[in-house]
Structures are given as structure tokens and as C-alpha cells.
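Revision sheet: C-alpha cells.
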Amino acid sequence: MRFTVPLMMACGARLPDRLNWLRTALVEYIEEEHGHEQWILDDIRAAGGDADAAAAATPDTATRLMVAWIRDSVEHGNPVAFFGMVQVLEGTSTALATQAAERLQASLSLPNSAVRYLTSHGSLDIGHLAFFEQQINQLGDEDLAVVIDSANMFYRLYGAMFRGIQARSAGRSAVEELSHALA
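Predicted:
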């Protein structure tokens, strides 16, 4: 989460003038997303985890690769590649966030305050996805192909991140693993 707003800003700075309308939309999206990483840290704290350690932790390899790939795409390729990431993150969130929150809460006996980010994003991201769709529908074929290619790559990288969580979780408590994964 802590990488999202800086990536949005980099994308907006690199959009060509022909996509200025998209930059305007991106400003609105940045305002909406700013501060969400604090929500995750608050949930970690409410679940009994060490939010400060999570915030200071170096992301796992799969997460670093995922962020590096999208940053490189934005900085050295077509910046609309960022929206492939958005499609994956927002689309996955609308499909899974509420369900994940319910399962985590039940299996770990967590209070409501420990799953606020996930419960809010299941419904919140439905609006984000509709906003995203409006913007993407205005792109030309070449830019749209970049978004689709980026989404395909990001699905692979995002999946690797979750496979890494599963592989590591054998040695950690569920709260420790959640803290490490979400930070």
C-alpha cells in the first residue's frame, strides 16, 4: 500500500499531453487513496501485531519485484501500464476483500477494528472499479493493449506474492504473517 500513491504520482507526471484528461482523473484517485496504508497499520495494531515493525519492514521479494516491475513500466515504458495494476488490485479487492475479512476475523477471533481496511475496501473498491472503467474506456487501442498486458503481468506477480505468503506462513503466527504481508 505504501507504494501506491507514489506510483500514481509518477504515472501522472509521465502521462503525455494527449492523456491530460487521465491525469485529472488520477489526481482524484490519489486524493481517495492517500493515507490508506495507515488504515492497514491500524488494523495490524488492532489485531495485536506490531504496526511499527510492519511499517519499517523490507517487503518480501515478490512484493519488491511487483513494485519494481510496475515502477519500471511507468518510468521507462508507457505510464498507462499503471492502470493494469489498478485493475488487478481493485478488481481483486471487490471480489475478495469482504470475504477475506470475514474468514480472517472468524479464524483468528479478531475484533471488527482489526479488519476495517478489508471490510471497507470490498464495497469501496466497487466505486473505484466503475471509475476505472470509465477512464479505460476512453483509451485508444495502443494504450488499452498496454493496460491489458500490464494486468496480465501483474496478475502473475500478485499471485507470486500470495504464494510466498503461504510458503512462509508455516513458521509464523497468523497475526505476524498478516502484519508482514499487508505492510
